[in-house]
Amino acid sequence: IMVLYVAILAIALYYLLRYLWEKIPVKNLRNRAVFITGCDSGFGRLLALKCSKNGIPVFAGCYTAEGRQSLEEEAKSYSGKLVAVPLDITNDESVVKAAKFVKENLQLGHKLWALVNNAGAFSIYGPDAWTSIEQYKQAFEVNCLGMIRCTHAFLKLLKESQGRIISVSSVAGRTSFPCTAPYSVAKYGVEAYMDAIRQELKAYGIKCSILEPGIFKTPLINKQAMEARVKHVWANVSDEMKEEYGEGYKDDCKKYLFCVQIKRNPLPFQFFFGALT
């Protein structure tokens, strides 16, 4: 019995010390640059602005020219320099060019402290039977392979700084929901990849973290976008499939996600910034 008590106490002490250690804030953040993907909108844009406002140098990967321009305009009065970088995470050349740009434009004395793999897409919404293999490939390319592609490109810089890799997964990467199979499959891949490299990169002093947001109001998930996705998938299924499922099932797909209350909640965003600092 005494041995059991000692073991429980030792485990509890370990986790307490680990928790306290992780709560120690990172110093000299003004000399530690971050690269964030998917900064055109949503969590990525909010995080880029938050970092810049707090004096952290930011390289913000944006898919569109409009996103880059508006982000730099909004951040120009902040103390941390923000540079928007063209980025298509599905394109090898684009990712390599972004990594080269960051390396060449780090200010003297600065290092790349963190890579935040935030970019993602929720382009398909409907039952598996309505979904093509090509649509699975597209979802996996953006939500999983894009994250791996960026990690490979920036890994050398992160080894030099003993920094951290933060990848945005989803609650759908832990629990699958109806009508979200392509997205969930990709997010499960994110979790598996991060679990593997977390162990491999520990020897280099690199910390790997996963964030799993639930259902929140971002451009990725809103009523109009979700309804448009169902309409798009339905338009491309065969007449036989339409007859089998019927219009009522299509309407149920539209309603399903919105049975869950979607909120604007600042708490997940605090975890994004906390993972960096």
What keywords describe this structure?
globular, Rossmann fold, six-stranded parallel β-sheet, 277 residues, 9 helices, alpha/beta
Q: Can you tell me about this structure?
A:
This protein is α/β, with parallel strands linked by helices and 277 residues long. The chain has a single domain (26-216, 263-276), classed as Rossmann fold (3-Layer(aba) Sandwich), CATH 3.40.50.720. Helix content is 54%, strand content 12%. It is built from 9 helices and 6 strands. A 6-stranded parallel sheet has the order 3-2-1-4-5-6, sandwiched between helices. Helix 3 (65-75) links the parallel strand 2 and strand 3. The model has no long low-confidence stretch (mean pLDDT 86).
Topology record:
Blueprint: H1 2-22, E1 32-36, H2 42-53, E2 58-62, H3 65-75, E3 82-86, H4 92-105, E4 111-117, H5 133-161, E5 164-168, H6 181-201, E6 207-211, H7 223-235, H8 239-256, H9 267-276
Helix pairs in contact: 4-5, 5-6, 7-8
Protein name: 17-beta-hydroxysteroid dehydrogenase type 6
Keywords: Oxidoreductase
InterPro entries: NAD(P)-bd_dom_sf, Sc_DH/Rdtase_CS, SDR_fam
